[in-house]
Amino acid sequence: MSTALQLLLIQGILGGFDTIWFHELKARLPRRRSAVSELRLHAVRDFVYTMLFGTLGWISWGGALAWVLALALLAEVGITLWDFLEEDRTRRLPPGERVTHAIMGLAYGAFLAFLVPEMMEWSAQPSGLRAQPTGPITFVLGAMAIGVFVSGVRDLIASVRLSSERRDSKVSASPPMHLAAGMPPP
């Protein structure tokens, strides 16, 4: 399990860099109306990572819960693929962000390669969560869980705000009802 957690730690470092450098400082996504869908995808994915960072160093997912964890991992893959498509639709990514995403994909694949055998063992156990603290890395991953949760909340709030601004600008840009209907003003 230690190799899987080390790879998860690397994933967290890369994800933090990607978020701060590319999403916040370079693209300024929380300020772009065109980024509403991308921000929502990031928020959902951040909540999946909150669960991963917050639990995998502390507990094992026994029995049927191992399959719940597997669904969350598959959902993360689906969200990431959808995010790639959304990014291509709404903005031009700088080469460094593409490279970072590729490295993150490799790290995630390696993480899964080490985690899945553990999950297979967990699935054979009775259902339930069992304490399994794994040392100091647990606390670093816990701190990452807090950080990615805050990032997810921020992205979700920004997407709601931007969506509301977009809706308000459409309403103010539309002509009054009597003009839209071709009727003279009252």
The overall average pLDDT, rounded, is 92
Which strands sit side by side, in order, in the main sheet? 1-2
How much of the residues is beta strand, in percent? Answer: under 5%
First-last Cα distance? 73 Å
The helix/strand order is HHEHHEHH
Structural class: mainly alpha
Quick description:
The chain has 186 residues and is mainly alpha-helical. The protein is built from six helices and two strands. It has helices at 2-26, 36-55, 64-90, 95-123, 137-173, 177-180, and strands at residues 59-62, 128-131.
List keywords for this structure.
mainly alpha; 6 helices; 4% strand; single chain; 186 residues
Task: Please characterize this protein's 3D structure.
Helices cover 76% and strands 4% of the residues. The protein is mainly alpha-helical and 186 residues long. Strands 1-2 form a two-stranded antiparallel sheet. Helix 1 (2-26) runs antiparallel to helix 4 and helix 2 runs antiparallel to helix 5. The N and C termini lie far apart (73 Å). The mean pLDDT is 92.
Q: Which helices and strands, and how do they pair?
A:
Elements: H1 2-26, H2 36-55, E1 59-62, H3 64-90, H4 95-123, E2 128-131, H5 137-173, H6 177-180
Antiparallel strand pairs: 1-2
